[in-house]
Amino acid sequence: MKTKIQKYIPAECPWRDTLYWYSQIDSTNVKAKELAQTGAPEGTCVIAGFQSAGKGRMGRSFSSPEGMGMYLSVILRPGCTPDKLMHLTCAVAVAVCNAVEAAAGIRPGIKWINDLVLGKKKLGGILTELGINPVSGTVDYAIVGIGINCLQQAADFPAKLQDIATSLQMLTGKPISPAAVAGSLIHALWKLDLLGEKKECMAAYKENCITLGKDVQLHRAGEIRQANAVDLDENGCLIVEFPDGTRETVGSGEASIRGMFGYI
Ligand code: BTN
User: Fold this and answer.
1) Residues linked to residue 109 through DSSP beta bridges, in sequence order
2) Of 84, 79, 189, which is closest to residue 133 (Cα–Cα)?
3) What is the pLDDT averaged over residues 174-196?
4) Cα-to-centroid distance, 144 and ligand 1 (Å)
5) Is 110 in contact with 201 (CB distance < 8 Å)?
6) Measured between alpha carbons, how far is 143 from 187 in angstroms, rounded to an integer?
7) Helix, strand or coil, per DSSP, at residue 202
8) Residue range 190-196: average pLDDT?
9) 3 state SS for 4-56
10) Is this structure's pTM higher than 0.85?
């Protein structure tokens, strides 16, 4: 499988040589973190055929059935302070849209902040985790974990996800292989200029973000409030307007959103 994935990564990309493949694992993010803590270089990729404990944002799980999805984590070592990486998930989301479009011929949208969506359902998600050096305060490593549903049919998702999850095969009618998506994604992530033009990155994110302009339910600290998703700031925080006209800027660490009548 490792060789199959490598075939989908252009030769110019050095990350094709630092790739670990596991037929099964608890979580590729956990493994990538272990590798990062023992000195693995930037561009080390961990890919699995099955995750027994796939992790999502805010302590949720990520359904990772065997052979059906693309489960990938990459180690980045940007060497900057964490404040320079506030837009990391947004930058990765744009790269994922590019990669899925290149591999499958359809471009997902982004539901703030880390969900990839198509046809009003969830196609995948992104989980970014930072390791900070306690002495220098700089980022020792960033783990970027991405899961994309490729070959599932509706019945392959757990019952509670069947109404809100989709896959590339369900959308295109074609078997888009996890290896092809992984190869395309590794290339797109390698090309990412994380510390480059943040404004351009956020402009691209906004273009793909399906949340903006919508009425949403804002879930925060055990409270649910109705709001309109008005804009994003330069760090990817969501600017919402409440029915009384007041506005607030909310970070992804403190809040998540739902549609007024369901997932979107
Ligand atoms: C989310 O939906 O909130 C994010 C899902 C991220 C899932 C990916 S699959 C590869 C990597 N390993 C994990 O345990 N999680 C991420």
Assistant:
1) 117
2) 79
3) 96
4) 9
5) no
6) 16
7) helix
8) 93
9) HHHHCCCCCCHHHHCEEEECCECCHHHHHHHHHHCCCCCCCEEEECCECCCEC
10) yes
Residues with a CB atom less than 6 Å from ligand 1: 27-29, 51, 54-57, 60, 62, 71-73, 114, 125-127, 145-147
Centroid of ligand 1 to alpha carbon of 222 (angstroms): 23
| Helix residue spans in 79-227 (DSSP H) | 88-104, 168-172, 178-191, 198-208
Here the tokens at position 12 are: 């110019």
Write the CB contacts of 71 (distance below 8 Å, at least 6 apart in sequence).
28, 47, 48, 49, 50, 51, 54, 64, 145, 146, 147, 178
Q: Examine the pLDDT at 128 and tell me if it is beyond 90.
A: yes
Helix-, strand-, coil-residue percentages of the chain, each rounded to 5? 30, 30, 40
Residue 197 has pLDDT above 90, yes or no: no
Q: What is the per-residue pLDDT across 47-58, written as a single tens digit (0 to 9) for each?
A: 999 999 999 999
pLDDT (tens digit per residue) in 58-76: 999 999 999 999 999 999 9
Phi, psi of 250 (to 5 degrees): -115, 140
Residues across the chain: 264
